[in-house]
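Data follows
____________
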Amino acid sequence: MFYKSTRNPALRLKASEAIAQGLSDEGGLFVPMNLPNVKANFADWVNLSYQELAEEIFGIFLDDFTQAEIHDCVSQAYTAEKFGGKTPVKIVPLGSKDDHKWILELWHGPTCAFKDMALQILPRFLTVAQSKSGDDKEAVILVATSGDTGKAALEGFKDVSSTSIVVFYPDGGVSQVQKKQMATQEGENVTVCAVKGNFDDTQTGVKLIFNNPEMKDFLEKKNCFFSSANSINWGRLLPQVVYYFYTYFELYRKGAISDMNQEVNIAVPTGNFGNILAAFYANQMGLPVKKFICASNANNVLTDFISTGVYNRNRDFYTTTSPSMDILVSSNLERLLYSLSGENSEKLTEWMDALRTAGNYTVDGHTFKEVSSKFYGGFCTDEETASIIKNTFETKDYLADTHTAVAIGVYDRYAEETGDSTPVIIASTASPYKFSESVLPALGNQENMDEFAKIKKLEEISGVAAPTQIKELEKLSERFNTVIDKENMPDFVCETVTAKKGTV
């Protein structure tokens, strides 16, 4: 299994090289040369544990890793201690089973967000990948986060040998719990910095650093290299494919689907397009999916794209109650368009250049037809999201965070418009206690109190206990409080690396 770039199909990289590098030199994203159909494996896979299934799928794509290396990565990442049980995900019915709605809870890991599913194992992948390179360079992990990726990456890479990690987040653009999680992060190799602007400013700044020859020369002198923990890294995306297969098999075991040819729908609250892209890749590998429901908030650039074929980031940016989706440039959409355009790198490069220079592009008719036939796009306002949280709690006895609520609302709209009663997997991406400042008022409590008082009040009202790791944040001291302009991100990285590595 070799990997090529969406913008340079002539590249041939091993899995370890693609994971270590993260982003291709010309700005493209690494994709596997082919996505094998694994439908013939379903009978053998259906009763595997989560960890066993992960090893099977990783073995297909990481074929320069030994079986023992993959086993070690999986066994260290998905432990009962980290995820509160032997299975790192939970699959629960939303209301009665007759509703055909199943919640895939992906937030039982150390940071209470779905990013843990990938970022507990990516550092282990990267460590193995580095060992195969034959050099002693240190990886400098650069991360742009809209809230959840940052903390999950910090926790995953904390004190991992031969790595250091720098996380940038938009100042004022994350929840108070998300900010507190990052600012209090432990570890000798971690650094966190807020950036004046929104997530797109932060993400663009990181990409520019990656592709800056002077920055690469600087790191070379320090005996370092850049890598990424964002979902632009294939090693971040691959683990997300696993839980869609696992959930499908679990629904079969529960009797929610009658046979392993039956289609499901998958609804995902979507920002950078990585989580829903993983579901698409699972489908390309044989998972029966009827429709991908792409749920957005008021930053509804993806909704408009799916309905028109025009991607236009030239619009107002909204800071919403679902901040992990406050994104106008969805990086992983590039991988989808590469696939649906017939792997046309030239055409894709034109679109990405147009996005960079003009802020918009229009895909060709064939690609648009493919997108619109497979995907449904919708969005919810903050007011609608609050109403969905309240209604879901009162009628289904389920407490949803602001992102999961968006997915529930958009799916319900899809079902109402189409009459489609196909069983649906709704990705639940974060604990509601990460966003208690929005979830609590949605349930009718408008009292003015601090963040941790809100968490306690939400526990009282809902009867649902907050995760221990969130409640304990109140006692922790903040280590990181730097705020910079986006133009100063390269200098900040240089200063951070110099401080850790010393002068040349």
Summary: The mean pLDDT is 94.
